[in-house]
Amino acid sequence: MSERVREKLNILADAAKYDVSCSSSGSNRKNNNKGLGDTGGGICHTYTEDGRCVSLLKILLTNFCIYDCAYCVTRKSNDIKRAAFTVQEVVDLTMNFYRRNYIEGLFLSSGIFKNADYTMERLVQVAKKLRTEHKFNGYIHLKSIPGASDELMHEAGLYADRLSINIEIPTESGLKLLAPEKNRKDMIAPMNYLKEEIIAKKEEKRLFKKAPMFAPAGQSTQMIIGAGKETDRDIMYTADKFYRGFQLKRVYYSGYVPISNDSRLPGLGSSVPMVRENRLYQTDWLMRFYGFNVRELLNDANPHLDLEIDPKLGWALRNLNCFPIDINKADLHLILRVPGIGMQSAHKIISARKFHKLSWEHLKKIGVALNRAKYFIICNSNEMERRDLTETKIRQFILAGSESKYLKNSIQQLSLF
Ligand code: SF4
User: Fold this and answer.
1) How far is the C-alpha of 324 from the C-alpha of 374, rounded, in Å?
2) I need a labelling partner for 113 at 20 to 30 A (CA). Which of 16, 214, 357, 369 fits?
């Protein structure tokens, strides 16, 4: 690699680290022995200490940008070193790194040169060259440029596994304040186009096996958390709206990293606690897989997630009247609402109770976290643990339990050294 390309790589990989939406699950691009790579076996992700994904070659095509979004390190008014790859340079880097087994795919985003179409065209050219000239079957995630034409979005879908367009700021008023040159409509139009195309192409593929794939890993988006004054309710209501409206595979929540002393933003010393991101992901999970409506978890009375306890426990404590549930009789959707019972354990409970009545011992073997679940369930004996405990008492007991467990683990870990 030449010195010039190495320098560009340093600049443009560093600029890309703020984007967390690079997980690569959900694609299945088979290698037919004429090409290189294969996403079918699943791509591993590794994460840096601060939780960011580093398994793909994750770069910007350029960090030049005509926009001035206050929260972005690439904004035009920021006095930073700028660089831009050529299309061929990105293709060569990807192929070289892939052959050396450094990466399993490419995550390519970009600042906006000239205009949306000009930039999107270059992103598409990278993917097209990799697929057609190099028969590359590794994973490709392209960040789509808001405002890009339908034709370019169509081409992008033919070559990329996943496409994503960042919503960036959860509320429209926040976007107006921090990125006044942008608007939601430009983000929504390509998302809508992609949704329609993905549905149509799936149907086509069902009817004709040889029909081309179109963004087989779907589309996703990312929101920056904590740059504006939005509540967790605002964030998750927006996520819910986008999941429903555009059939997104994932919404990513990225804590704002202070990069500017702009008075519209939180000060340079502040940062979004990692636990807030974590609680948002847990809420997202509950909405998508556990049958919770977002309004049950966040509403006018509870606009913020409790950072001390997870959102499922928070909901259960606010709704003690729904408990205890009988683990030997309750439906799956109710079992899934019990703190300490995950998806796998809930399914195991349903299967196991076909053969015999479950006891506390059985539940323990199944993997239920009884230190939490015991306040919300009964099994083959009476309600042993809950007695007439109040919300505050149960909360205290659980927190004390997890704290002592945490301390015990820490002590065990320390004893290893
Ligand atoms: S358009 Fe994108 S890259 Fe450019 S300043 Fe805004 S967020 Fe940053």
Assistant:
1) 9
2) 214
Residue 301 domain-assigned (yes or no): no
Q: At 237, list the tokens.
A: 């209501």
| Cβ-based neighbour number of residue 31 at 10 Å | 16
Structure confidence by residue, pLDDT tens digits, 287-306: 999 999 999 999 999 999 99
Chain centroid to CA 368: 26
Q: Which residue puts its alpha carbon closest to atom 3 of ligand 1?
A: 111
Cβ(59)–Cβ(251) under 8 Å?
A: no
Q: What is the pLDDT of residues 132-155, one digit of tens each?
A: 999 998 889 999 999 999 999 999
pLDDT tens readout for residues 321-339: 999 999 999 999 999 999 9
Do 128 and 140 touch, CB atoms closer than 8 A?
no
Alpha-carbon distance 169 to 239, whole Å? Answer: 11
How many angstroms is it from 117 CA to the middle of ligand 1? 15
Output the CA 166–ligand 1 centroid distance in Å: 10
pLDDT at 32 over 70: no
Q: Is position 243 within any domain?
A: no
How far apart are the C-alpha atoms of 342 and 340, rounded to whole Å?
A: 6
Determine the Cα angle at 40 with ends 39 and 43, to 5°. Answer: 50
Q: Which of 220, 235, 251 is the last residue of a domain?
A: 220
Phi, psi angles (nearest 5°) of residue 251:
-115, 130
Where are any strands of DSSP class E within 131-238? 139-143, 162-164, 219-225
The boundaries of the domain holding residue 394 are 311-416
Ligand 1 and 113: CB distance under 6 A: no
Closest CA to 337 of 316, 355, 314: 316
Closest residue by CA, ligand 1 atom 6: 69
* Domain closes at, from 182, 202, 220: 220
75 lines ligand 1 (CB under 6 A): yes
Residue 289 lies in a domain: no
Does any domain span residue 189? yes
CA distances from 358 to 198, 329, 362, 379 (A): 44, 10, 6, 6
In terms of DSSP bridges, do strands 105-109 and 139-143 run parallel, antiparallel, or are they unpaired?
A: parallel
Residue owning tokens 């259960």: 316
